[in-house]
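Notebook entry, cofactor series.
This is the third protein in the set we're modelling with a bound small molecule. For this one the ligand is zinc ion. I'm keeping the input format identical across the series so the outputs can be compared line by line later. Sequence and SMILES below, as received.
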Amino acid sequence: MKTKDYKPKYPLIWNKKDFSIKIFCSIPNIATGILLKAGDALSLIDPGDGILRDLNKELNPSEILSITDIFISHGHHDHIGGVWSLLTYFKVMNKKSDLNIYFPKGCIEIVSIYKAFRNVYSGTVSYNVLLKEIDNEKKYAIRKMKVKPFFVDHSELASDGVTKTKIPSLGFKFFYNGLSICYGGDTALCDSLLKMTKDSDLAIIEAGNKDDENDGIHLTLKEAIAIGSSAKEYFLVHVP
Ligand SMILES: [Zn+2]
Ligand SMILES: [Zn+2]
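Returned structure with ligand:
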């Protein structure tokens, strides 16, 4: 299968034993947006631009306000573009419960958005934002889920189009009700992704490169299919 032949049809939905994923979209350089449900606990993964519009179609306001955890794989705008809107929506709607944002240590974008938000709205925010900077691969217990972050290999190109710089990047593996969902974020081929994807009930794997392109920043469709096939089921996302 060539990249030009494959286009995911969003939303992509997976649901087993009260554990579900809805990928509203995942388009390179535009936006990703993923809703994760474990029982009645709602979380977001990589809330890019448009996430509020998608949540508004999917949930009622009190359900949106019940979101307590946001998982950020890395700071590229297509993965975090909706964070400011969410923070502000929660303020306007008088959210009371804490909001935890999990993100890789060194992801300056999230820290900067948070600081700007505090700066603009200091003293008038009804809820706590707790920044959870991740600098190791320790498993967390988050509400009824277990979450295992893992480091992946993602870079960005400088404006010269040649110089590559590695950026802090994570994948997350979520466990609930005896099932597991592995989200690799944006990544080139790396051992941690292979290890964490294997035998997952669902893997969400990016295929951001064309087949003839191997830039060490994203996976080719061929690589993504090979990795995804080691899980019980998989979705390919972030396809150009
Ligand atoms: Zn991306
Ligand atoms: Zn990226």
